[in-house]
Please model this.
Amino acid sequence: MVLDTGDTAWMLVSTALVMLMTVPGVALFYGGLTKKRNVLNTMFLSLIAFAIVSIVWVLYGYQFAFGGDMLMGLIGNPANLLFSGIGVDSLAELAPTIPTTVYIAFQMTFAAITVALISGAVVERMKFSSWMVFTVLWVSLVYVPIAHWVWGGGFLASFGALDFAGGTVVHVNSGVAALALALLLGKRKDISLLPHNLGYSVIGAALLWFGWFGFNAGSALTAGGLAGSAFIATNTAAAAAMISWIIIDILKTGKPTLLGAISGAVAGLVAITPAAGFVTVPAAIIIGLITSVVSYFAISWLKPRLGYDDALDVFGIHGLSGAWGAIATGLFAAPFINSLGTGLFYGNPEQLIIQIVAILVVAVYSFVVTLILGKIIDKVMGLRVEDKVEIEGLDTNLHEESGYRI
Amino acid sequence: MKEIIAIIRPDKLETVKAALEEIGCPGMTVTEVKGRGRQLGITESYRGRDYRIDLLPKTRLEIIVKVEDAEEVVQTIVKNAQTGDIGDGKIFVSPVEDVVRIRTGERGKNAV
Model:
């Protein structure tokens, strides 16, 4: 294969777009939803995750995730540790029209946002130092193997699992890990959820939506018809999910809420992620409409009954909309959109089973390993801040800064 | 001298201020405060779940007047801050021992 400058240009842009999703996208989305006294700490969790994962990824993360398969599909062969042997002009094995360096950078932004998403469950009470240690361990021992299984030629890829841009690798994975960590941390002392600056969250969600074009259309790894198809499917699902969340809002409480609108849009973006390059535009509408029902139900009905304090609903939105999207891929994947995927509605019921198995494998692995890592960190250095710090606010106590001086 | 503390709706501040100016009582100290009465706040929703906001924003006026002017000021505030709905606020009147104008050192009634 030869390098394609059009593909390379698009992938460079996509990489920068996905970076924008973490900082400032997730940082603002989450920052606006927390209490005033924790806004800086909340944003900081995303920022530091991005920096730490960036380093881990170039040193060994990419190599274990995307190196040639070894140990029967469990992990990649880390032949290029510390970036050794990666030539300026070498082409990526899994995207043979773009440079390896661009592919590495693109995948790095996915690893980083996956960790940043988890932070939504632990805000307002987790020690910053523990979060930094957790980031290193989690990306190394949970994200890297799962990325290899699904995308790096591992056993779920050979099993036939379809995940265009990360429904399982990013969203089910982060959602379930968030649930595990929230369970370990326990409830916040003040579990009220009154966004201190919903405007931040609107800007954050809008930047997520914008960046998601790089996330999903970039996952075509080429600049062509498939990228265009994923782009329009992504936008369509987000719009449909926003509208359906608002309709549920009106039916349940009588009023449309802005938080509902952005929550719906994000849920729609999550759900279309695994499906973006496999499904038609009408299918994207259905995927978007249904996903808000799934996440709304999980957050307003399931969460209070189960009693876990997943503060910003990472499990409810990313975990469950991600799972729905992965299932929907098994239903709606159309071979005339992408020859790699044929779903139940196009005569391949087996795909649905494969999707469900992939979701379960990722969810169980992520949940169990996150629990173990969290438990170890808790024993060694403690996960949770002191009561005094939690009540007075993490910003002034952990960082000696405050978000507002007005 | 009397001190009049009025807790009113923030959106009534402009009307009350204008009315007090009209009756010749332009001086006041205004603070943004939070509080609650028997109504116990309002409800906001978050992703389908309801939360009670139990402290509502109010505006607090502090006015020092001569004893004989107190009743007129109180009446003016009531007339202009009233909507008739729950949440209109309250007025407290209490005696003031002394007043000092820092610029000149004047005391008592002359300093009001």
Remarks:
- Chain B has one domain: 2-111.
- The first strand of chain B starts at residue 2 and ends at 8.
